[in-house]
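Bug: token stream looks shifted between consecutive jobs. Job 1:
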Amino acid sequence: MDWTFLFGSFEGRISRKTFWIGTIILAVALIALSFLVLPLLGLGMMNPALPDATTGGDAQAIGQQFLDSASRAGWANLVVVLIFAYPMMAVMLKRRHDRNSPGWDVYAYIGLLALLSVLQGLGLCFTVAEVNGMLMPTPTLIGTIVPAIVGLLALYLLVVMGFLKGDSGANAYGPDPLGGTASATA
């Protein structure tokens, strides 16, 4: 497999099998990087906002600590999105090309991921509200709508790129990655 082509080029086409290989490699790398970056920011994978000894049980302080953790996580997510944007786009665009699409939806998806991270980093996605006499972290309207849009677009792209067959034969983006046979199923 040509790794430079897979992760470094926006040209050409790839099959579903190659898409899944590239996606799994990127997911493993992203998880590994998260395990390295999050602790540097005082965040953990499983407990991003547990109260620490400095809060003394004060509900306002615990709520603020959650908001601070969510903000730091947003900026960390932005860094990770920016690091992985190019190879993610390379894999995704080539797969969209296999279905004879220019892939504008891929650019929109990566842009929305970055926007969501910035909004979270700016503290616009969560608030602390009183629920049944307790202060609870709750998503804001922005923190509800933007992730829903990102999730729906991600689901659409997953189906289109991961499960639907590409064009048989050559198309505007190059030759069939399966060799042009109409009965191939990769």
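Job 2, same session, no restart:
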Amino acid sequence: MDEKLARRAGEPGFGGKHIGDLVAAQGRATADTLARNGRPTRQIHIEKLDERAVGALLMHFMLETILAGYAMGVDPFDQPAVEEGKILAKQYLAQG
């Protein structure tokens, strides 16, 4: 943001900042607010955002979901609601 415009808007601290600065500040503020209010938070920092890092992160979350499901006594590979939805969708389509 242009420094003159930032001052005119009553936010002189925004002068010279970019949209990425805003996104980073908002992310940090959200994590800090959740933590201060006793909510569990987790921040993941990726040095280089590329295909390998995104793939590794996706795999991490898939494995985490599987393990969490088993820990809670839920079969993470059984999706009865998904299957029921497919059956109903077929019925609805056949009925017009």
